[in-house]
Design goal:
The structure is a homodimer of 471-residue chains. Chain A has 11 helices and 20 strands. By secondary structure, chain A is an alpha/beta fold. In chain A, helix 1 runs parallel beside helix 7 and helix 1 packs parallel to helix 11. Chains A, B: Its EC number is 1.4.3.-.
Amino acid sequence: MTSRDGYQWTEKSGLVQGVPSIGVIHPPSNIGQKQEQYDVIVVGAGYCGLTAARDAALSGLKVLLLEGRDRIGGRSWSSNIEGYPFEMGGTWVSWGQPHVWREISRYNMRQELELSRNMSHEEEDKLMQSALEKFVNVDGNLGKTVMPFPHDEFHNPEVKQFDKLSVADRMVQIKNQLSPDEYTAVLSFVMLCSASTPEKTSFYEFLHWWALCNFSYEYLVKYKFRGGQSSFAIKFFQEAVETGRLSYAFNSPVASITQNQQRVEVRTRAGDVYHAARLISAVPLNVLNDITFSPPLAQGKKTAATTGHVNKCVKVHAECRGSELRSWTGVNYPNGQLPYALRDGTTPNGNPHVVAFGADHNRLTPDKDIEVTKQALQDLTKMELERVVFHNWADDEFAKGAWFFSPPGLVTESLDDMRARQGNIFFASSDWAVGWRSFIDGAIEEGTRAAFNVIQDLKARKGSSPIKSVL
Amino acid sequence: MTSRDGYQWTEKSGLVQGVPSIGVIHPPSNIGQKQEQYDVIVVGAGYCGLTAARDAALSGLKVLLLEGRDRIGGRSWSSNIEGYPFEMGGTWVSWGQPHVWREISRYNMRQELELSRNMSHEEEDKLMQSALEKFVNVDGNLGKTVMPFPHDEFHNPEVKQFDKLSVADRMVQIKNQLSPDEYTAVLSFVMLCSASTPEKTSFYEFLHWWALCNFSYEYLVKYKFRGGQSSFAIKFFQEAVETGRLSYAFNSPVASITQNQQRVEVRTRAGDVYHAARLISAVPLNVLNDITFSPPLAQGKKTAATTGHVNKCVKVHAECRGSELRSWTGVNYPNGQLPYALRDGTTPNGNPHVVAFGADHNRLTPDKDIEVTKQALQDLTKMELERVVFHNWADDEFAKGAWFFSPPGLVTESLDDMRARQGNIFFASSDWAVGWRSFIDGAIEEGTRAAFNVIQDLKARKGSSPIKSVL
């Protein structure tokens, strides 16, 4: 099936909207005309919503999953084009990520992973490691003293001061310690992580990533699925469907969510109305204000959503003829429009595949001007373009940005607000996970939390187990 | 409640069998006289069995949990004595352990952890790191080349050759590279890990641990629960009970397991008989042959169980008067009977708490001769003993050893055999986990696998979801 999401360009076809994905669900709904009262409605079918819907359905709840797109996966999905999986969003996983690994292990997919880079780049890795160590070394201990416990990030409250600093502020502090190559390496790499600008990016959030990666650049190189991200996401969806308790409707963007003490009502943009005892909003931070909540979102939540996260990534894949790019990483900040790029795999045609990351600085809009993007790729290194595939996350109406990366102040001021329940609505998103926030792992962490809390809540309401079942 | 397991000695009481634990379940059974047909019987209420029983019950299956002991937790449990939790078995957890961390996160317990050592021991840690690096450095890359992917341990099949080596063999290879202090450090530490002798311990298995710990001694220092292990295990049990679908009987050692194509029959030593469609054996490797299986265990499984793992740990806690032991680690191999000991916490009386680990070399039997054990503690360092608390795992009838550690050859030859299903019986244990084998994480990994497979299997049998439920 072909999703509306993503674009592809070849010499022959020109720019075409939509790419094929096994994550597209057809038919898009299994609801029919019947009116039902659900136990829980889950809004959003990314990993967070999929996990919440699956866990709730497995536990015996009657679940409705609503999704604006035509596919599962949210900000992580893959397009399979001529036998090759292009990762359109979140990609990397590892056994150091507890929630995602539990699922990979449970679905017996641990042997379906491959390294996301073919080769190590020893000198480059050494340069990057030494540069990043200077960047994070605020405590003479590579950050281990200020953030000893990344899954309880404020364990040492001293760390909060670093959320007052932007990456630009931090660069000023250390610029005399860095060689010109190190300076470029740090900035390009951090802009790869935040896909924003140094001024808008919180230094604290990078410290958190660093601690999660065991305080080493080495663990930022991760594994990816041989069959693409959608081959993983579909497992969650299928398992939920197989319970017989999952109703779903894709192509169903939600317009409004209204609650009273008894139930929650959801109205889609098309005017369909659904009811449930509880609702899990797995809607990303940057589009939370696009839904009308009644009563309105709590002030803290609304403020956080208005601030938003800063990641404006445009992810661009290039399939190039010829094989000069055997092993290669390109950094190109601040002059280029794609600050970071790397040689990834090899397509079935034997062509090198390069993946490049655009950021908020000099932002590309390839859907509007593909020629500028093709030139930006050429600015990285000379390549003969066979195919360009991309997802412009910055302008995606259901995300308005890619993975979460915070501006200064947002996490220390608003994390609790973003995580808070409001009446019968539970808010879940990787954007406010406490562990691997921004990552697929954080999405699963949050989906797990939401389903667990809804089940406990309904159990308390009934005074006993909500779930009675027989074979 | 007081468990029959464990022993305590004080000057006043002398040696007393049994220590208090919140893991003791009372009343020990909720079955009553009714005869029921269960979907699945789970034998063993350690973390593996608890996870399997919980997941199966959550998914709507009717579950019977049978356990020989009077408590949950198996080889991981804690005794709370005068307000202080003594860890009687498995203790350490970390966010680098995916299955355990998913549960800690899900039960919202991430802020209930504390470091298992109060202080770092810089010089000692440096000595240990350098000595262990020489020990594992078979590939000039600290083991990263031969075991790049510890959760798919045979990814590089070259690694299998190291399962032909014992630790003693490896020590011969490197003895000229080690200082006398390094030599003692390595052997004491590896005997802490295997609780056996260098001759009986596989070098390969230590390589696997090392890789799981990100190739660093640093990550072997882990976190533990402030409230003790049993405060974690009880969450699994309570959640399973709350489904209303868990029947259980403690003090019910299983004598025989008989299966035909339709069902499985379990007979306890007391003569009680139970039936189910499927059975999950969460029985440890070293006692698997103590149950009579009909038809008998497959040859590969039987052989592995006859070989057994080599860990014969006797875990000994000492509460000592006075505070000289502010920060201390003792290594004492091969002369002492407790090759490794460390200062852990401080009891509510303000006394230092030392935890010591006995191994198969010069094995202690403190339940038979407490005076010898008290002397072995004194041999580590002069201490005034206020209290001794211990669990002799080597002689424990339901474990016959502590956490899994393999002799040469066992893992490479028998891992698949140990993991294999046999008819309607699924075998699950940390002893044959593929990730953190031997750890609580591996137990949860295996319990998750077993429940998932049983549910899939029953679903396939029925041709649809096994679970129909309503609020």
